[in-house]
Write a structure and sequence with these properties.
There is one protein chain. Helices cover 35% and strands 20% of the residues. With 485 residues, the chain is α/β, with parallel strands linked by helices. The protein folds into three domains: 127 residues, 3-Layer(bba) Sandwich (FAD/NAD(P)-binding domain), CATH 3.50.50; 183 residues, Polyamine Oxidase, Chain A, domain 2 (Alpha-Beta Complex); 98 residues, no CATH class. The chain has a seven-stranded mixed β-sheet with strand order 7-6-15-16-17-14-18. Strands 9-2-1-13-19 form a five-stranded parallel β-sheet, with helices on one face. It has a three-stranded antiparallel β-sheet with strand order 10-11-12, with no helix packed on it. Helix 5 crosses helix 6.
Length: 485
C-alpha cells in the first residue's frame, strides 16, 4: 500500500485525505493544532458557542459527495437546511432590506425596494449564472496550470464567450454600468470580499459569485459550521485516515527534486505522496526554505484579513437574522484604507452572524451569540491593539445608530480575533484569509498551482492556492489534487 502524508487538517487537507484513502493510500495527517478544521473550528466564551471562522455555507453538494464517494448516506452523518432569508442589509440612513431566498423572490424584492426594474435584475442574475457555468469547469474544477485543461470543450466554449465574462472591467465598474441605485450597487459590490479583494480593483468576472447565494441558495448545517469539518474528520477516520495532532512538521524532505517525506521532532517519516494544506507562503518559507522560492507568487499582495468580536449579547433582536450586513457610508474609502493605507476606516462595513438564530443551544435563553466582523488589511506590523480599541468603539456606535440599541450594556461575554492570532493559529501569512488578493484580472492565473512544477510527488491544497479561498474552492482544490495524483 502506498503512503500519503497530508500537512494540515484544514477542510481541504481533510477532504484530500478522504479522497486518497478511497484511492487505496495509507494516509497520515499531521496537524500543528490540537484540533481538526483549521479556520473552521468553534470556540466557547462563557455559555456562548461561536463558529470561529467561515460562516457562509453554499454548495452543500461538495460536502455530501465526499460521503457518497465513501459509500455513506450523507443525511445519516451530515444535515443542513436551506435558509429562507439570505441576508439582512442595513444603511446609516435607516433604510434596510431583507433578501429572501429564491430567484423570483429576489427579483421582485429588489424591484420593490430599489430603483431598478425586474428585467434588469433578472438579466444580471442570468448573466451571473452564465459566467459561473462557463468558468466553473475551468477555473474551479480543474488545474489552470495543466495544458490539457485548455484543450477541453468547456475551455473552447468559455473562450468563445470571453466578452461575456467581464474580465477586463472591475466588479464595481460592471455593477455601476448596470445599476443606478447606489445601495444596490453596494450589495453587488460586496461579493468582492468573498475572496478578500476590493470591488474597485477585482475583475468583473467576480459578478458570477452572486449566483452561489441568489441562484443556488445559502444553507445552515445542523450544529453550526464546525459540523462541516467535524463530520468530514469523522468520515476520514472511518476510511482509515490517521490524524496526528500537536505535531509540527519541521521540513519537507527532498532528494533529486523529489519529495520523500517530512521531518517531525527530528524523526524522518517517508511517503510516496505529500500534500501541503499549509498556507503556500509558510510552506515555502518554513518547510521548503532550502528550495528555490517562487518569488513572484510569494510577493503578491495579500488578501484582506479580519477583526472579529465574539460577543455574547443579552436579549433577542428581531431585526437581525443569521447573516446581517451594516454597510459603510464611505465604501470606496473603506477599501482604500484596507489595501492602500493598510489601516481600518472609522466607518467600516460590519458583518454580524448569529448562529443562535438557527441553533438555539449556541446561546443561553433570551440571549444571542454575535459574531461581529470587519474586513481589515493583513498584518504588516500595524498597531493592532490601537486598531482594536478604536474599531470596537466605532462598531458599537454604528450598531447602536442603525439598530437603535445600547449594545455596550448588552454585551455579557467577549473574545477577540485579529490578524496576528489568525496567523499564529493557522500559519496564514500576515493573517490573510484567502492567501493572495484577487485585485487584478490575472489573479486566478497567478495563484500557486496545486502541484509543484519542479518537485515530484508534492501537491498543494487550501485557500492560498488554486482555485482560491472559501469552503467550496478549498474542497475543489482537494478534488483537483486527487485527480492529478
Amino acid at each position: 500500500m502506498q503512503e500519503a502524508i497530508v500537512i494540515g487538517a484544514g477542510i481541504a487537507g481533510i477532504a484530500a485525505s478522504i479522497r486518497l484513502a478511497v484511492k487505496g493510500y495509507n494516509v497520515n495527517v499531521y496537524e500543528a493544532n490540537d484540533y481538526p478544521g483549521g479556520k473552521m473550528t468553534s470556540i466557547n466564551v462563557g455559555d456562548f458557542r461561536f463558529d470561529a471562522g467561515p460562516s457562509l455555507f453554499t454548495l452543500p453538494g461538495l460536502v455530501t459527495e465526499l460521503f457518497e464517494l465513501c459509500g455513506d448516506e450523507p443525511e445519516e452523518y451530515f444535515k443542513y437546511d436551506k435558509k429562507e432569508t439570505i441576508c439582512n442589509y442595513f444603511w446609516d440612513d435607516g433604510y434596510n432590506y431583507s433578501m429572501p431566498s429564491g430567484r423570483t423572490e429576489i427579483i421582485q424584492g429588489m424591484a420593490n425596494h430599489f430603483d431598478v426594474s425586474e428585467s434588469t435584475i433578472d438579466s444580471y442574475l442570468e448573466r451571473s449564472k452564465v459566467k459561473y457555468d462557463l468558468t466553473n469547469p475551468i477555473f474551479i474544477e480543474k488545474s489552470l496550470h495543466k495544458l490539457s485543461t485548455y484543450f477541453s470543450k468547456e475551455t473552447i466554449v468559455a473562450f468563445l464567450n470571453m466578452l461575456r465574462l467581464d474580465l477586463f472591467s472591475t466588479l464595481h465598474g460592471k455593477n455601476r454600468k448596470v445599476f443606478s441605485d447606489s445601495k444596490l450597487i453596494q450589495i453587488f459590490d460586496r461579493f468582492a470580499t468573498y475572496n478578500g479583494s476590493s470591488p474597485y480593483q477585482t475583475s468583473g468576472i467576480m459578478s458570477m459569485i452572486p449566483h452561489l447565494e441568489m441562484g443556488l441558495g445559502t444553507y445552515f448545517p445542523e450544529g453550526g459550521m464546525k459540523s462541516i469539518s467535524q463530520s468530514l474528520y469523522e468520515l476520514a477516520k472511518r476510511q482509515g485516515v490517521k490524524f496526528h495532532f500537536s505535531q509540527f512538521v519541521e521540513e519537507i524532505l527532498l532528494e533529486d527534486k523529489k519529495a520523500l517525506g517530512v521531518k517531525i521532532n527530528g524523526e524522518i517519516i517517508k511517503s510516496d505522496v505529500l500534500i501541503s494544506n499549509m498556507d503556500i507562503f509558510s510552506t515555502y518559507k518554513k518547510l521548503l526554505s532550502k528550495h528555490r522560492q517562487p518569488k513572484k507568487i510569494l510577493d503578491q499582495e495579500r488578501s484582506s484579513s479580519a477583526l472579529i468580536f465574539y460577543w455574547g449579547v443579552n436579549g433577542n433582536h428581531s431585526k437581525l437574522d443569521l447573516h446581517n450586513i451594516l454597510f459603510s457610508d464611505s465604501y470606496k474609502e473603506e477599501f482604500n484604507y484596507i489595501f492602500e493605507k493598510k489601516e481600518i476606516h472609522k466607518d467600516p462595513t460590519i458583518y454580524i452572524n448569529i448562529s443562535s438564530k438557527c441553533n438555539d443551544s449556541d446561546a443561553p435563553t433570551n440571549c444571542e451569540n454575535w459574531f461581529v466582523m470587519i474586513n481589515t488589511p493583513s498584518d504588516t506590523g500595524q498597531d493592532w491593539d490601537a486598531f482594536i480599541s478604536k474599531s470596537r468603539k466605532n462598531i458599537i456606535e454604528k450598531i447602536d445608530k442603525v439598530l437603535n440599541i445600547d449594545l455596550e450594556s448588552l454585551i455579557l461575554e467577549e473574545d477577540i480575533l485579529d490578524p496576528r492570532l489568525i496567523e499564529s493559529r493557522t500559519s496564514s501569512h500576515q493573517g490573510s484569509l484567502y492567501g493572495t488578493s484577487s485585485n487584478s484580472q490575472y489573479s486566478a492565473f497567478l495563484r500557486h498551482p496545486n502541484f509543484s512544477r519542479d518537485i515530484s510527488n508534492l501537491y498543494f491544497v487550501g485557500g492560498s492556492v488554486h482555485p482560491g479561498g472559501g469552503i467550496p474552492l478549498c474542497l475543489n482544490s482537494a478534488k483537483i489534487v486527487s485527480n492529478l495524483i
